[in-house]
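Problem 12. The chain below contains 480 residues. Write out its predicted structure in token notation.
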Amino acid sequence: MRRRGRHRSASLTPALLAPAVLAAAAVLAPAGATAAPQVQRLARATPGVEAERLALPSSAGLVTQEAGASGGAGLLIWSDAAATGPLTTSAATSGLSVVARGDQCQGAPSMTVSVDGRAAGTVAVAATTWTSYALPGSWGPGAHRVSVAFGNDAQAAGCDRNLRVDRVSMPATASAPVPPPATAPVTGSPLAGARFWVDPSSNARQEAARRSDDAAARTALLRIADQPNAEWIGDWVPTSSVASRVASVVAAGRSAGTVPVLVLYAVPHRDCGSYSAGGLRDTAAYAAWVRQVRAGLGTGRAVVVVEPDALAQLDCLPSDADRRARTAALKDAVGVLAGAPGAVTYLDAGTSRWIAADAMAQRLRDAGVAQARGFSLNVSNFGWTDAEAAYGDQLVARLPGSHYVVDTSRNGRGPGDTWCNPAGRALGPVPTSSTGRANADAYLWVKRVGESDGECGRGEPAAGTWWPDYAIGLSLRAAG
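Solution.
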């Protein structure tokens, strides 16, 4: 990420300062934290580390003087990066507290906290004043390594999203946290309480059977196979057979007492000539194909995600006429699907790191999102769940009545250094309709986990190709 020159004038304090004691306080973690933030009372002698003692790349931030911060200083992180350092405790600890605040810009900064390489949780730092964010977990006495990562750097006209950290603490076990409230399905959601369809013959399950002599790989693959993943229906399914294909998936879901997730991926000029290039020949062919999808749905239940990236990539189309044609084709598709009584339709809106909320809201509006349940986010991307939800809430504010789903299939470690098969990523939150967010109907695994994004200029498998080693890596890193 970029280094922002405007921060060079920030006042500095020495990189190492004497530790300070965090005064006892009872603080409620702000709404929107996804890793079960808790009400936490901190003892005066709570083991902790000042954020300014943590190591951070110089290009990603610096130590600043901070009024009201413990020790009078804090750590400013202005690019996606992690600050890390040691924290030693003399007794068992329960819970983790991070005092932080955010510079807001089209959403709150996302903060992921890890101990000894394992994530304790991710929260959206919505507070602009120093606030204690509490995360679950327990650790034994001794030396630990803590990490505080900023994961959704952004800038826009007149604002700059940054994360500011004061102190990381591990309360003693005697100061037990109040258990977090359980999340629940969004009230009034058509997906409330839904279980999503699991493909019994997925690539991951077949690969697990082939790896019977490798226990670690088999376990990792079954972790993927046992979760529901979307079924993609694209131009590779011809118009003459798409109705029967869709009907077979809907029937399989009905037989299992579950709801399948379908992804339509056949819009003309798909992916603007990139690794997933393709689509039907023109909008007339697409209209006929969509009507066969509708026929296959019948009266059965299904989640339908309409054309990932199609609206986000409008700008790459060669002319205004092409952009208008795509928008009209999507609006027609959404209108046709609205006639399927059991379909819950979401028009894709890209990801939080792509199109500004005002512009995307207008694109969704033009493409008929009012006829759908809402929109989908982060499909085949790696954005932190909190960051995508914050962006989704911004869109909902501009599109009253809309709701959204978030693809969490590969966002367990947030964005990497590229959109195309980035290294070091992990599975994200498992699919559920219990998001605890008023506007979020579900977290889904929309991207088929383990399928390649494309050659990526590195000779990797073609887009959509099953790639066992990448799948196993995603799963093993999620397992810690």
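Discussion. Helices lie at 203-210, 215-225, 239-256, 283-297, 320-337, 357-366, 385-398, 468-478. Students who got a different answer should revisit the alignment rule from Section 12.3.
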